[in-house]
């Protein structure tokens, strides 16, 4: 049987969440430790464990059909490759930073300066758009140390909590791009594998929608029902069921997790009681 080939980071920050996503999609992978290639036992898919930096070229060559990759790597090394899903994990930004004690006016301050980075193409493009000429030093890791050892005046690297910058006495001065894990596709994917990809995307979207929402159950006095239904629109409209006490009803609905606490406050002021909140495994709409 034909199988779609997916590239996943071999080890590092994307590995766990990528494999968890496949698992949540109901895809079991027969994973011998240290194997670089593994097959799913219940979905037409083969997993290739690769270094992130190599994946764009494998996609271009059609060695793999799809990949889970940080958007930052794609922009740096495979700008032309198509993104089919944004996956919502490994969120970070690519930023310029300088020593804390150096005054900063604006981006023109980087003119003629030395910048250490592992993202030369992205930085070059950014600087060219601003009309700035700088001297790039390409290093593959521990970029934040460069200003402290006199190798550069500033750096351009990934930031999420900001603690690596802080520990190295640096401050973030410009955000070049925001990134998250994405599902990307090879231009050489066959028609047959496109259909497998569509099936996979359907599963991924159901999982991601589930992750973004919570199932809410609550009790409310009947004279407050209308008000509460307005607060809780639900997927179509909320489910309302009578309780043994004829003056009360139980209401079930779905709430976006980012709006959740605001909604709960509104529900409480509208008279809701016994509010239960449950995770949603999958959501098909
Ligand atoms: N601090 C961070 N917070 C959130 N996401 C991050 C962070 N650092 C990196 N990432 C994301 O995870 C991806 C993988 O980073 P990681 O450091 O594991 O691998 P890498 O060194 O870029 O690649 P390789 O697999 O070639 O060694 C990055 O491309 C980025 O999208
Ligand atoms: O803002 P923070 O939360 O501190 O995260 C930023 C750091 O995380 C990444 O490095 P990583 O830990 O992946 O190490 P690496 O250099 O070995 O890739 C990135 O290159 C930064 O150094
Ligand atoms: Mg890293």
Automatic annotation (TrEMBL):
EC number(s) per UniProt? 2.4.2.17
Classification via InterPro entries: ATP-PRT_HisG_long, ATP_PRibTrfase_cat, ATP_PRibTrfase_CS, ATP_PRibTrfase_HisG, HisG_C, N-reg_PII-like_a/b, N-reg_PII/ATP_PRibTrfase_C
The domain of life for this entry's organism is Bacteria
Please give one Pfam family short name.
HisG_C
Residue ranges annotated for the Histidine biosynthesis HisG C-terminal domain, each copy included: 211-282
Q: How is its activity regulated?
A: Feedback inhibited by histidine.
Where is this chain primarily localised?
A: cytoplasm
Report domain ATP phosphoribosyltransferase catalytic positions.
51-205
Q: Which reaction does it catalyse?
A: 1-(5-phospho-beta-D-ribosyl)-ATP + diphosphate = 5-phospho-alpha-D-ribose 1-diphosphate + ATP
| Keywords for this protein | Amino-acid biosynthesis, ATP-binding, Cytoplasm, Glycosyltransferase, Histidine biosynthesis, Magnesium, Metal-binding, Nucleotide-binding, Transferase
Give a yes or no for keyword RNA-binding in this entry. no
Q: What Gene Ontology molecular-function terms does this entry list?
A: glycosyltransferase activity
- Name the needed cofactors: Mg(2+)
Query: In the UniProt record, does the keyword Nucleotide-binding occur?
Result: yes
Where does this polypeptide localize?
Cytoplasm
Q: In which pathway does it act?
A: Amino-acid biosynthesis; L-histidine biosynthesis; L-histidine from 5-phospho-alpha-D-ribose 1-diphosphate: step 1/9
Query: What PANTHER family is this protein classified in?
Result: ATP PHOSPHORIBOSYLTRANSFERASE, ATP PHOSPHORIBOSYLTRANSFERASE ATP-PRTASE
Briefly, what is this protein's role?
A: Catalyzes the condensation of ATP and 5-phosphoribose 1-diphosphate to form N'-(5'-phosphoribosyl)-ATP (PR-ATP). Has a crucial role in the pathway because the rate of histidine biosynthesis seems to be controlled primarily by regulation of HisG enzymatic activity.
Task: Name the protein family.
Answer: Belongs to the ATP phosphoribosyltransferase family. Long subfamily.
Concerning HAMAP family, the annotation shows: HisG_Long
UniProt protein name = ATP phosphoribosyltransferase
């Amino acid at each position: 049987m034909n199988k779609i080939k997916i590239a996943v980071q071999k080890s590092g920050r994307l590995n766990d969440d990528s494999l968890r996503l496949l698992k949540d999609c109901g895809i079991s992978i027969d994973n011998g430790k240290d194997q670089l290639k593994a097959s799913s036992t219940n979905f037409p898919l083969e997993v290739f464990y690769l270094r992130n930096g190599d994946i764009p070229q494998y996609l271009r060559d059609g060695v793999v059909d799809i990949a889970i990759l940080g958007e930052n790597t794609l922009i740096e090394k495979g700008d032309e490759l198509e993104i089919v899903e944004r996956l919502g994990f490994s969120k970070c930004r690519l930023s310029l930073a300088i020593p804390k004690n150096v005054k900063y006016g604006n981006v023109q301050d980087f003119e003629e300066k030395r910048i250490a980075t592992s993202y030369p193409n992205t930085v070059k493009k950014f600087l060219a758009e601003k009309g700035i000429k700088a001297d790039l030093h390409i290093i593959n890791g521990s970029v934040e140390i460069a200003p402290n050892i006199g190798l550069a005046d500033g750096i351009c690297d990934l930031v999420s909590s900001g603690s690596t910058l802080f520990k190295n006495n640096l401050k973030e001065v410009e955000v070049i791009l925001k990134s998250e894990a994405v599902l990307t596709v090879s231009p050489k994917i066959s028609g047959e594998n496109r259909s497998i990809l569509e099936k996979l995307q359907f599963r991924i979207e159901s999982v991601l929608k589930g992750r973004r929402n919570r199932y809410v159950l609550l009790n409310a006095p009947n004279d407050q029902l209308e008000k509460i239904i307005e607060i809780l629109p639900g997927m179509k409209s909320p489910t309302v069921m009578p309780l043994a006490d004829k003056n009360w009803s139980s209401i079930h609905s779905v709430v976006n997790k980012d709006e959740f606490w605001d909604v709960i406050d509104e529900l409480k002021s509208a008279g809701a009681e016994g509010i239960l909140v449950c995770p949603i495994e999958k959501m098909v709409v």
